[in-house]
Amino acid sequence: MTSPQQAASAPYGGAGPVRKITPRRLQEMRQAGEKIVMLTAYDATFAGLAAQAGVDMVLVGDSLGMVSQGRDSTVPVTLDEMAYHTASVARGLAAAGGGPLLLADLPFGSYHGSHEEAMRSCTQLMQAGAQMVKLEGGGWTAPLVRYLVERGVPVCAHLGLTPQTVAALSGYRVQGRDEASAELLMRHSCELAEAGATLLVLEMVPAALSTRITQAMPSCHTIGIGAGAGTAGQVLVMHDMLGASLGKTPRFVKNFMAEAGGVRAAFEAYVREVREQRFPDEAVHAW
Ligand code: KIV
Fold first, then answer.
1. Domain-embedded: residue 135
2. Which of 40, 54, 226, 277 could form a disulfide with 61 if both were Cys (CB 3.0 to 4.6 A apart)?
3. Total structural domains in the chain?
């Protein structure tokens, strides 16, 4: 077996030159109309494979609570657990040449108190290797985003279906379907962009709405998951796109493993299809 550290000293066949992704590079991609490709990973090996496949951003999502720990929500995931997985992913990315930008989720409860407490949580994740942090929710989060950005923390916000508050949303359902909730989502998105968020994940939002939000925010880049093809980029949970889920797979997911010869080929197919705007296919994967 080859560890990511050993692989670092071996040539990575066919990966091409490493393209280092920074917030500035994301802006350039946006201006050039190049889609941003994000994928979750929770350990060194899969993160290294994602880097080799040309993924732009690796998200250490608190979805690890569900796909790795077997919990029924993301709520029990702790900051220490997130830092542990972030450090593993950081080692895998470094071994693969360090191309993708590493984004880590602030787990439930780690940013809901004082701004100082949230800053301490960001510090722990960034010391573990995160280059950007993600937090869920709109409205109350905008002043927090501004506070963190002013202190040098790049922030990705997350609106629409926010898994940490799935109980309050009455389950995994599409958000922003009616006019009032669509306008609220639009307002929260603009406030977060104004506060300095670099990215905005939109989860389970109608395609027309996420396209409208994307067009309203030229310097905050939308990353969709179940939000149609009009966003600046796409993200999927790795286990879902590999067809490795125990439960029912959401409609917005495509199984990229079905026609691939291995994990890296599946990741490469995902990168290719997002870049060529073949995934998501709105007739199949959107609402
Ligand atoms: O935790 C996670 O994996 C996420 C994605 C669903 C965007 O937040």
1. yes
2. 40
3. 1
Taking only the tens place, the pLDDT of each residue in 143-200 is 999 999 999 999 999 999 999 999 888 888 999 999 999 999 999 999 999 999 999 9
Query: Ligand 1 in contact with 105 (CB < 6 A)?
Result: yes
Does a structural domain hold residue 139? yes
Alpha-carbon distance 129 to 79, whole Å?
14
Ligand 1, pocket-test mutation among 38, 40, 106, 135, most atoms within 8 A of CB? 40
Question: pLDDT digits over 91-121, tens only?
Answer: 999 999 999 999 999 999 999 999 999 999 9
| pTM for the whole structure | 0.94
**pLDDT at position 283, please?**
86
Residue 15, in any domain of the structure: no
Atom 4 of ligand 1, residue of closest alpha carbon: 61
Question: Which CATH number does the domain housing residue 186 bear?
Answer: 3.20.20.60
Residue listed under structure tokens 């998200």:
59
In a domain, 223, yes or no: yes
CA distances from 12 to 46, 51, 179 (A): 14, 10, 50
Task: Tell me the CA–centroid distance for residue 62 and ligand 1, in Å.
Answer: 6
φ/ψ of residue 188, rounded to 5:
-60, -40
Q: Which residues pair with 156 in a beta bridge?
A: 134, 199
Task: Give me the active site residues, please.
Answer: 203
Residue owning the nearest CA to atom 2 of ligand 1? 61
225 Cβ below 6 A of ligand 1: yes
